[in-house]
Amino acid sequence: MWLSGQWFGLEVVERIAATVKAEPAISRRALSRRVCEWLDWRAPDGKLREVSCRKALLELERRGHVALPACEEVPGFAPEAAKRRQPPAMPEVKCRLEELGAIEVVPVTSRYSGASEIWNGLMEAHHYLGSGPLCGAQIRYLVHSSNYGWLGAMSFSAAAWRLKDRDEWIGWSERARVANLQQVVCNSRFLIAPSVEVPNLASHVLSLSVRRLAGDWRERYGYEPVLVETFVDGQRFAGTCYRAANWVWVGQTAGRDNGYSNGKRSTGKKEVYVYPLRANWQSTLGAEPEDRLVLRGSVGEAGWVEEEFAGARVHDERLRRRLYTLAQDFFAQPGELIPQACSGSRAKSKAAYRFFGNELVDMQSLLKGHVEATAQRVGKHQVVLAVQDTTTLNYTAHPGTAGLGPINTKSDQAVGLILHDTMAFSSEGTPLGLLDVQCWARDPEEAGKKAKRKELPIEQKESVKWLRSYRALAEVQQLCPHTTLVSVGDREADLHELFHEAQQTPSGPKLLVRAERTRQRQVEAAEAEAHEYLWEKMPAEPVAGHQEVHIPRNGSRAARTAKLEVRSASVTLRPPKDKELADVPMWAVYAREVDSPPEVTSPLQWMLLTTVAVSSFAQAVERLRWYALRWGIEVYHRVIKSGCRIEDRQLNSADRIESCLAIDLVVAWRIYWLTKQSRETPDIPCDVVLNEDEWKVLYASVRDEPPPSEPPSLRDAVRMIAKLGGFLGRKSDGDPGTTTLWRGLVRLANIVIGYRIAWRLAAGHDP
Fold first, then answer.
1. Quick one: what percent of the chain has pLDDT higher than 90?
2. What does the buried/exposed string (b/e) look like for 285-304 if buried means 16 or more CB atoms within 10 Å of the residue's CB?
3. 153, 141 in Cβ contact below 8 A?
4. How far apart are CA 522 and CA 584, in angstroms?
5. What is the rounded CA–CA span in Å between residue 588 and residue 607?
6. Which of 107, 667, 704, 714 has most Cβ atoms within 10 angstroms of its Cβ?
7. How far apart are CA 489 and CA 466, in angstroms?
8. Nearby residues of 101 by Cβ (< 8 Å), 6 or more positions away
9. pLDDT at residue 257, as a whole number
10. Inter-residue contact 209 to 108 (CB < 8 Å)
11. What are phi and psi of 513, to 5 degrees?
12. Residue 280: DSSP 8-state
């Protein structure tokens, strides 16, 4: 879970609990320092973020994850008593600015110093907000005149987390705001004593303070702020001194009359002023950090939804909770429209539409956590096949949707989105999750670009999707060095640029690509500087052996078992004549169907190119088996379209559809995973995927008898769900597939809703 901007995984939470149990006398400060050291949680100056960590520990305790040691009483520390001390006597001053002598802004270096007492006394006596507390990192100043002594006080502290008008004026993205907000500070207090009446003094003090602020902040915290903000209560002040000091008015705060989620109530709208401290402030604040994948560990017993979405780049806790709710609702009723998936609740439906329309939410931000969870699972396998494929999402039936593009030919005028995703599969065919997703709408103005494909670099063609996915896999490969990642692609992936990229990163993912015959690939021949065509060379190689493979049904084509004669050889691919790229050494596996039945008009013929060594018939067969598992992504796409019915979503814009698609993609993976997992681990209890209400209602509905005290096995539960979706469960039927499973999940959700309503009516309370 995310707390105070830091990820707390299950291992860290358990370690905290174990430390408190083993050392009951440990102080909260010592515990926070230790946790910061575990996480290497430091400020830019290298100091441990103890205060942020203590806040996170309090939240962990509030949520019931840990029990913290009792707070210690600090002798002699009485902040309220300090506030009640009498302020210093202030002089009556009415003169011109130059008559004050030398004016200084003097930093308060310690809260125990005499200067701190003066600062607190002035603020408590004369400032309508009092002396604090101030938020986060802070510096306090006193205003001193060489002729009259103390004249006032001011402070700078942490900036507001989010301000609509300020953020629009800066123009930063959500990621940039979260990363760079510490470089914005707030002038949280400013006071010139009421007995001091000197024209231009306030604006002069503001100029002096911002002139030294960056250096003082760097000395204390190790970095420099680049922008200062402040808030002026328009009912009390005109903000004249800020305008005179060249501060820029950028808008107002929200000032909501109905209060905030933390229980606080606004005292009205405030005017927002800002002052840049550096010429390049905008580029500094707008710089987005590199968003690298991280293996965060398990989130414990929080459930699969939080496991997959906890790492989502959603920094508003309200949006995060809504994300979890939507994922749970979509999984409970896959394929239902949003109002039905939200149980018909108008409030939940409205919240869902607002979520998808929120500018802080997008597909990549939502999927990042799932990709990290997938990488976590990938690291537990020796070999993982990362299958890439492209499909289209047709929204021609929703012509009012903005941001769509053509997906077929000019003649049919179909519009929609292009989806290119990469699904990780274990070597047994279990889907582990998504590793990369690209979604875009074609520009209608670029129609006809295919005719210029040989003139354009790959970066300007859709084919670059294969390279982008490969680079995403390379990042995962770095996190999982003990796993062999193999990028699997169909004939569209037969690109020399892709092979060349793989050659440049020998420690990166491997490749397994089906060759396209029309590309007329050339390979080096035995004679020096000679060449021959790949599709002529491989049939001439000796047959290494024969292998049978299962060909699944596809449309009108019936499923069958094909007998293949297998050949393999090492080859060196030459680049196309119009591309200045190096030769690439690879292995080729050629499999051709023999003895096919008469009704088979197109016998199977595969030419596979791979960077994984093939030196024996067994290895060649393994590469064929790996490629045969590519069919799994076709099944997955069917779950997305037919099961989750993503093409029926009506969300008015492509951006909203993509945000919704992010959740549907994970839900579709979960359904597909469930069908496979029930076969691999059939004996584990089903409460890993169903709560108590669900498995008990499921059992009673299908078996027509009271449920047992212990949950049934996962295999039994999946078969019962599938029976609700039309699975007959006869001996010859085998295991259920994804279609009956998603249909059964929809029926189960409705039955559970009915059960809960009946319970409330009968018992007068929720079950």
1. 45
2. beeeeeeebeebeebeeeeb
3. yes
4. 11
5. 7
6. 667
7. 8
8. 145, 146, 147, 148
9. 57
10. no
11. -130, 140
12. T
Structure tokens at 475: 């990042």
Where does the pLDDT of residue 449 fall: very low under 50, low under 70, confident under 90, or very high at 90 and above? low
Summarize the confidence of residues 667-671 as an average pLDDT.
Answer: 91
For the segment 707-734, the average pLDDT, to the nearest whole number, is 83
Separation of first and last alpha carbons in the chain: 28
Selection from 148, 250, 251 nearest residue 192 by Cα: 148
Secondary structure class of 53 (helix, strand, coil): helix
Angle between helices 50-62 and 10-22 (to 10 degrees): 90
Question: What is the SS3 assignment for 726?
Answer: coil
* Separation between Cα atoms, residue 335 and residue 343, nearest integer Å: 13
When pLDDT is cut at 50, 70 and 90, the band that residue 12 belongs to is confident
Q: Is the pLDDT of residue 142 over 80?
A: yes
- Whether residue 591 contacts residue 568, with contact meaning beta carbons closer than 8 Å, is answered with no
| Crossing angle for the helix pair 654-680 and 714-724, to the nearest 10 degrees | 130
Across 376-397, b (16+ Cβ under 10 Å) vs e yields bbbeebeebbbbbbbbbbbbee
How many CB atoms are located within 10 Å of the residue 737 CB? 17
Backbone angles phi, psi at 389, to 5 degrees: -160, 160
For 287-291, what is the mean pLDDT? 87
506 pLDDT exceeds 70?
yes
| C-alpha to C-alpha distance for 111 and 115, rounded to whole angstroms | 8
CB 152 within 8 A of CB 205: yes
Each residue of 293-333: pLDDT tens digit?
Answer: 888 776 655 678 888 998 898 888 889 999 999 998 898 88
Work out the burial of residue 6: count CB atoms within 10 Å of its CB; fewer than 13 is exposed, 13-18 middle, 19 or more buried. Answer: middle
Task: Give whole-number Cα distances, 569 to 349, 389, 463, 624, in Å.
Answer: 58, 26, 27, 14
The answer to whether residues 83 and 117 touch, using CB atoms and an 8 Å cutoff, is: no
Query: Are the beta carbons of 394 and 412 closer than 8 angstroms?
Result: no
Q: Where are the alpha helices (DSSP H) in 425-550?
A: 464-479, 496-504, 534-537
Single-letter amino acid, residue 282: Q
Note the Cα 438 to chain centre separation in Å: 14
CA dist 39 and 4 (Å) reads 13
Q: Tell me, what amino acid is at 605?
A: Q
- Among 388, 630, 387, 607, CA closest to 514: 607
Among 249-263, 326-340, 586-600, where is mean pLDDT lowest?
A: 249-263
| Confidence class for position 391, pLDDT limits 50, 70, 90 | very high
Containing 231, the helix (H) or strand (E) segment is: strand 227-233
Phi (first) and psi of residue 227, to 5 degrees? -150, 140
pLDDT exceeding 70 applies to what percent of the chain?
Answer: 92
Distance CA 767, CA 756 (A): 7
Q: What's the pLDDT score for residue 80?
A: 53
The residues, any chain, with a CB within 8 Å of residue 274's CB and separated by 6 or more, are: 166, 169, 227, 228, 229, 230, 247, 248, 250
CB 672 within 8 A of CB 636: yes
Pairwise pLDDT comparison (526 vs 18), residue with the higher score: 18
- pLDDT grade for 77, boundaries at 50, 70 and 90: very low
Residue for token pair 């519009």: 415
Which residues does 687 contact at the CB level (< 8 Å), separation at least 6? 695, 711
Structure tokens at 232: 């002026």
Closest of 315, 348, 350, 353 to residue 332, by C-alpha: 348
Question: What band does 511 get if pLDDT is binned at 50, 70 and 90?
Answer: very high
